[in-house]
Specification:
The chain is mainly beta. It folds into three domains: 115 residues, no CATH class; 60 residues, OB fold (Dihydrolipoamide Acetyltransferase, E2P) (Beta Barrel), CATH 2.40.50; 136 residues, Beta Barrel (OB fold (Dihydrolipoamide Acetyltransferase, E2P)). It contains one helix and 27 strands. The longest helix is centred in the C-terminal third of the chain and has 11 residues. The chain is elongated.
């Protein structure tokens, strides 16, 4: 037995506070980040780093023109394309191929810094206050040669607890390692090339499917002049969110799935759906919460239909359709996004 709710006028700006209890990190559809130029475009999408990007439901925060350098945040779909959530501009002085290094500043003799064995030319870089030998630093730089870089910016890095003496904690930097984030350019047998640097993947823990064009984060160490990765994962989610969204939302939920919302953009939306089906189905995630998950990811879309059904061999799910032809399936018990 299925329960259907028709929602026709739900505005895209609604963000419901119940999302605080449903961490997006639990979602099974991988979130990814791209940085590259727009190679071509259509009304519905763009191509960045050779990857097709669907922008129909995305928040567009920069000009969408060919040859524009952009940052894309979105979801990696099964067909290898990206469903964009945001398309943002980048700083004027950022160029294609820039990488980010986080490690310990071992020495500094102008114009070169050494960070975990990486020689970095800082002759033209902006060096921010607090950068001293022995401290952890974050460097934005471009590859010159193996283990050699040209820096754009160097700043002090103050992690919470990113460096760990516990070798069993694979998610944190281990002693002697540095973190390296850049665009995956090539995948070879036992190695990858990231922002111009060759990295051995022998024995590495690879947490996500490797795909050229996507930004990845690596924990690496240098041995005999070669970078060896211990851990590789998608780079999404490191930077702080500076959107500074302010919203006031009131949510009332009952068996009839009534939702009333108001936000600071002076946008009011009321979506009422009544179902008189006498069959009661207990779900940990309500219809309102499922809608909130969708709108938190795609605030520019409108939910047109939500249906409670069983899929994937008996899993109870919310099947949600939107005005941008996006069909999102959410586990009704856990809030995990199962497919887009």
């Amino acid at each position: 037995m299925t329960t259907a709710y028709k929602l026709r006028t739900l505005m895209a700006v609604i963000i419901i506070v119940v999302l605080a209890a449903i961490p997006l990190k639990a979602q099974s559809v991988p979130q990814v980040e791209l940085v590259g130029v727009i190679e071509s475009m259509t009304l519905d999408g763009i191509v960045v780093n050779g990857l097709d990007v669907d922008i129909r439901a995305a928040e567009l925060n920069t000009a969408i023109t060919v040859d524009e350098l952009v940052e894309v945040e979105g979801f990696l779909l099964l067909d290898g394309s990206i469903l964009a959530r945001e398309v943002n501009g980048v700083d004027d002085d950022v160029e294609v191929g820039e990488a980010e290094l986080i490690g310990t500043l071992e020495s500094f003799t102008d114009p070169h810094m050494f960070v975990n064995g990486q020689m970095i030319d800082v002759s033209g870089a902006q060096i921010k206050q607090g950068v001293t030998v022995g401290q952890m630093v974050k460097v934005h730089a471009y590859t010159v040669a193996a283990n050699t870089w040209l820096a754009r910016e160097v700043e002090l890095y103050t992690p919470d607890d990113d460096v760990s003496d516990d070798s069993s904690d694979s998610s944190q930097l281990q002693v002697g390692e540095f973190e390296f984030t850049g665009t995956l350019e090539q995948i070879g047998q036992g190695f990858i090339v990231v922002s111009g640097q060759m990295v051995s993947t022998e024995g590495a823990e690879i947490k996500n499917q490797l795909m050229a064009g996507i930004r990845i984060r690596l924990h690496v160490r240098v041995q005999d002049g070669m970078m060896f990765a211990r851990e590789i994962e998608y780079a999404f989610g490191r930077d702080d969110d500076n959107d500074n969204e302010n919203s006031n939302t009131n949510t009332n939920s009952n068996d009839n799935a009534n939702a009333n919302s108001n936000d600071n953009a002076n946008s009011n939306s009321n979506a009422n759906a009544n179902n008189n089906d006498n069959t009661s189905v207990d779900t940990a995630i309500t219809a309102d919460q499922a809608i909130a998950i969708v709108l938190s990811i795609y605030p520019n879309t409108t939910v047109t239909e939500i249906e409670l059904k069983t899929m994937f061999g008996g899993t109870l799910v919310w099947d949600i359709e939107t005005t941008h032809d996006i069909d999102i399936v959410i586990d009704a018990q856990t809030g995990v996004i199962l497919s887009i």
